[in-house]
Amino acid sequence: MARIAGVNIPTNKRVVIALTYIHGIGAFKARQIAAKVGIDPARRVADLSDQEVLHIRETIDAEHMVEGDLRRDTSMNIKRLMDLACYRGLRHRKGLPVRGQRTHTNARTRKGKAKPIAGKKK
Fold first, then answer.
1. 20 to 30 Å CA-CA from 102: which of 34, 36, 73, 90?
2. CA nearest to 36, candidates 17, 16, 56, 7
């Protein structure tokens, strides 16, 4: 099992698919990395040599922000908005949708499970 950026990537999958298991690398970046290193995207991770895995690891470390660094950066950006008390920061603080979605109905993912209100009949 290959370990890249602190993540054990599956050995029985194709290289491009396996790289997407790393937080911060999607399908497009995975194809870019495979092309840069010179690995055929159709190859399986189990077929890679240790040298090729090392090249992939070095490329990701040098050029891409992934895993812990990316999560920390994202949380710091949200914390900065909350400290500024701008509109987006206030929405984050209250646990409401940030990007202009309606909240009269829907928005259950952000608001949580619906709570019944006593005495409200109509």
1. 73
2. 56
